[in-house]
Design brief:
This protein is α/β, with parallel strands linked by helices and about 450 residues long. The chain folds into two domains: about 10-165 and about 335-355, Periplasmic binding protein-like II (D-Maltodextrin-Binding Protein, domain 2, 3-Layer(aba) Sandwich); about 170-330 and about 405-450, Periplasmic binding protein-like II (D-Maltodextrin-Binding Protein, domain 2, 3-Layer(aba) Sandwich). About 50% of the residues lie in helices and about 15% in strands. The chain has 20 helices and 15 strands. Strands 8, 9, 10, 11, 12 and 15 form a six-stranded mixed beta sheet that branches. Strands 3-2-4-13-7 form a five-stranded mixed beta sheet, with helices on one face. This is Extracellular solute-binding protein. It comes from Paenibacillus gyeongsangnamensis. Belongs to the bacterial solute-binding protein 1 family.
C-alpha cells in the first residue's frame, strides 16, 4: 500500500509560521460551533433543510473536479434525503475570486464554499465572515489527523482554523511527450536548452509554450520562476513574505525583460493574453503546442484525462549565473473549503464536510489527477503516474515558495498578476514595476495608519 498526502518541506512550514506569527487577532463566527449538537438540528430531527454550496466550475468545457463535487452532492443526498443543496457553480478563476470577495463584503456568505489559503483567507477570517472550525476538527481527530500541521497552518490564524485544505499544488511546465520525441527533444536543464527547444518547435510550426493568460495569474508563473532562478529564494522571502524588498530590485526587472525577449522570440501565441486554460490544454493534448505552463490543480486533472501517460512535466530550468535552482519549486496548499459564520445548519454542514473529506471521496478526487492536502491510502495503480511523480517531486523539493499572489493577499496579488500580464505586451518593465512598488508602499502605509 502507498500513502500520499500533505508532506511539506521544512522550508515551507517555516514560511507558514512566519506568516502566522504576524497574524493579528482574528474574529470568529457567531453561529453555534460546527462540532456542537444543536437541539434543533435537522440532522437529528429529520427536518428538511437546504445548504447553499458554492464552488468554481469552468464554463464551456468539461470540469472533472466540478463533476466530483456534484457527485459528492448526489451521493450524500442519497444517504441524507432530508438535506438538499442550492449549488452555485457558474464561474471560475478570477471571476470566482471576485464573486467570493463581493459576497463577503455584502455578508452574503454560503453555508459551504471553496476558498483559498493564507492571505486570501485571512481577511474573511478577521472580518468574522467564516466559521471557526477549530472545535469541529478537535472533536473529530480521525479527520484532523489526515492533515499535516503545515497544511492546516495555511488556514489557521491566531490559533483558529477557518478552512479545510483541499489541494496541495505545484506550478510546473507540462510537455507533450510525443512532440518532444518527434523532434528528439529532452526536458531542459538550463535556460539555454529551453531556448533551443523553443526555436525547434517554432521552426516546425508548433506553438512552443501555450500560455492561457486571459487569467493573468497564469502568466505570473513564468515571472516567479525567472525571478527566483535569477535572484534565488531571498528575493521572494524579502519582497513577498517580509515586505522589506522592492519590486524594482534587479532580479524582477531582469525577469520581466527576459519574458519580453521570449515574446519577441515567438515562444507564445500572439493572442497570449486572451487565451483560456481549456484552449491551451487542448492544444497541448493535440500536439499543436509543445509545452504549457500551469498549476497542478487547475490543469493536472484535465491533462490526465485527455493525455494519459503522454503528458510529462519539468520544473523551470536553471539560468546561467543565477542564484536559484531548478530544484526550487512553487508549491502551496491552495484550495480549501470554509463554512459561513452565520450558517443556520451547523450539524448538516459538519456531516457533509466529513463525507466530502472521507477516504473514498478524497481517493475519487485523487484518481482524477488532483494533488491533495488530505492524507489518503491508495493501492498500486490507483493514481495516474503523473500524480505519483508530482507528489514525489513536491516532497523532494530543495526549497519551496508559496505562489506569490496568495501570501500577497487579494489586492497586491491582483496587482502583481495584472502587472505581469503587461510584460507579454509592450509595457516597459522598470516603469511597471515602479508602479507596483508604489502600490505596495501605499498599502503598507494604509495598514500602519489603520493599526494606530
Amino acid at each position: 500500500m502507498k500513502r500520499f498526502g500533505n508532506a511539506f518541506k521544512t522550508g515551507v512550514a517555516g514560511l507558514v509560521l512566519t506568516l502566522i506569527a504576524a497574524a493579528c487577532s482574528s474574529g470568529g463566527g457567531s453561529a453555534p460551533a460546527a462540532g456542537t449538537n444543536g437541539t434543533n438540528s435537522a440532522a437529528q430531527s429529520g427536518k428538511k433543510v437546504t445548504l447553499q454550496l458554492m464552488y468554481p466550475k469552468n464554463s464551456g468545457s468539461a470540469d472533472p473536479r466540478a463533476q466530483w463535487m456534484q457527485e459528492n452532492v448526489e451521493l450524500f443526498k442519497k444517504e441524507n434525503p432530508n438535506i438538499d443543496f442550492e449549488v452555485i457553480d457558474n464561474t471560475s478563476g478570477d471571476n470566482y475570486l471576485t464573486t467570493v470577495t463581493t459576497r463577503m463584503a455584502a455578508n452574503d456568505v454560503p453555508d459551504i464554499f471553496q476558498t483559498w489559503t493564507l492571505e486570501r483567507l485571512r481577511p474573511f477570517a478577521e472580518s468574522s465572515r467564516v466559521y471557526d472550525l477549530t472545535e469541529f476538527l478537535n472533536s473529530t481527530p480521525e479527520l484532523k489527523s489526515k492533515f499535516s500541521p503545515s497544511a492546516l497552518s495555511a488556514t489557521t490564524f491566531n490559533g483558529k482554523t477557518y478552512a479545510m485544505p483541499l489541494t496541495q499544488d505545484l506550478e510546473v511546465v507540462y510537455y507533450n511527450k510525443d512532440v518532444f520525441q518527434k523532434f528528439n527533444l529532452q526536458p531542459p536543464q538550463t535556460y539555454d536548452e529551453l531556448l533551443s527547444i523553443i526555436d525547434v518547435l517554432k521552426k516546425n510550426d508548433i506553438v512552443p509554450i501555450s500560455m492561457p493568460n486571459k487569467e493573468p495569474w497564469v502568466g505570473t508563473i513564468l515571472f516567479m520562476m525567472l525571478a527566483e532562478r535569477i535572484g534565488g529564494t531571498d528575493v521572494y522571502q524579502k519582497t513577498v513574505i517580509e515586505k522589506t524588498g522592492s519590486w524594482t530590485d534587479k532580479p524582477f526587472v531582469e525577469a520581466a525583460t527576459m519574458m519580453q525577449d521570449l515574446v519577441k522570440r515567438g515562444a507564445f501565441e500572439k493572442n497570449v493574453n486572451s487565451l483560456t486554460r481549456p484552449e491551451s490544454e487542448i492544444k497541448l493534448a493535440q500536439g499543436k503546442a509543445g509545452m504549457y505552463i500551469g498549476l497542478t490543480s487547475a490543469s493536472n486533472v484535465n491533462l490526465v484525462q485527455s493525455m494519459g501517460d503522454k503528458v510529462g512535466f519539468f520544473n523551470f530550468p536553471d539560468v546561467a549565473g543565477g542564484k536559484g535552482s531548478k530544484d526550487d519549486y512553487l508549491q502551496t496548499p491552495t484550495n480549501a473549503f470554509s463554512v459561513g459564520a452565520a450558517t443556520k445548519h451547523p450539524e448538516e454542514v459538519k456531516k457533509f464536510i466529513k463525507f466530502m473529506y472521507s477516504q473514498d471521496r478524497q481517493l475519487a478526487l485523487a484518481k482524477l489527477g488532483s494533488m491533495l492536502a488530505y492524507q489518503f491510502t491508495a493501492n498500486p495503480g490507483d493514481l495516474p503516474p503523473l500524480s505519483e511523480q508530482l507528489a514525489k517531486t513536491g516532497i523532494n523539493a530543495k526549497n519551496s515558495m508559496y505562489f506569490w499572489d496568495i501570501p500577497l493577499g487579494v489586492y497586491m496579488g491582483k496587482e502583481l498578476n495584472n502587472t505581469t500580464q503587461g510584460f507579454y505586451m509592450d509595457v516597459e518593465p522598470q516603469q511597471a514595476l515602479s508602479a507596483l512598488q508604489k502600490k505596495a508602499e501605499d498599502q503598507k502605509k494604509q495598514a500602519q495608519a489603520g493599526a494606530k
